[in-house]
Amino acid sequence: MGKDVIIALDFDSKQKTLAFLDQFTGKKPFVKIGMELFYAEGPSIVREVKARGHKIFLDLKLHDIPNTVKKAMAVLSGLDVDMTNLHAAGTIRMMQGALEGLTRPDGTRPLLIAVTQLTSTDQESMENDLLIKEPIADVVMHYASNAAKAGLDGVVCSPLEAGMVHDKCGKNFLTVTPGVRFADGDVGDQKRVMTPAAAKEIGSDYIVVGRPITAAADPVAAYERCCAEFIG
Ligand code: C5P
User: Fold this and answer.
1) Which residues on adjacent β-strands are paired with residue 32?
2) In whole angstroms, what is the distance from residue 196 CA to residue 183 CA?
């Protein structure tokens, strides 16, 4: 898979989602379906968006005992998504179980990406709440290398970490990076942001873009601008 822009479909209903997607009459964007939309509409929304010709990153961030994650991943694989994810904090064994569950009888499977530390976790909350005393950058890199050891395809990370992840885990280990904003756009609640062009420069493989596209006056133009800056 090459570089691509993934639009975060952060909507709470099928109606809003399809009304948004109806605007894309040309290229069908790669899209991300997260917990909000999935819990609102269930697996049928995944089938419906897939049937419209979109690639899908199903962002449900699984974290449970290895056997449960393995079985849940087998179900998600049957939904024919292109990419899905889990928490690296679930351990290498859990990640290996997930890969097994995800692999279809014919040997194919969706890409599997790990969340390292959520970007909402900072050094203080990691130390106080999770009792992890190492520097957060080291924890992120350790979790990324655990994901690589388990055989996963990559990690979700800040674009600012993408270069380091590639240095440690190899250039083929995918970096999927949210926190992208246009140079002249609103930052919103994201703390550490990068433009699509800068994310390309630093080596992100996929950028996940929500509000700069979904809240734009012209979402199709915003998507095309994002693709032009990131893919070229
Ligand atoms: O609207 P915005 O571009 O900020 O949306 C970014 C998307 O990426 C959202 O769906 C958000 O939940 C997700 N995300 C993130 N930061 C992470 C992991 C996921 O912003 N560390």
Assistant:
1) 8, 57
2) 9
Cβ contacts of 33-39, under 8 Å, gap ≥ 24: 33/9, 33/57, 33/58, 33/59, 34/8, 34/9, 34/10, 34/59, 34/60, 35/59, 35/60, 35/61, 36/10, 36/11, 36/12, 37/9, 37/10, 37/11, 37/12, 37/13
Any atom of ligand 1 within 6 Å of the Cβ of 193: no
Whole-prediction pTM:
0.96
Check pocket membership of 10 for ligand 1, CB cut-off 6 A.
yes
Active-site position among 50, 61, 71, 168: 61
Each residue's pLDDT tens digit, 34-68: 999 999 999 999 999 999 999 999 999 999 999 99
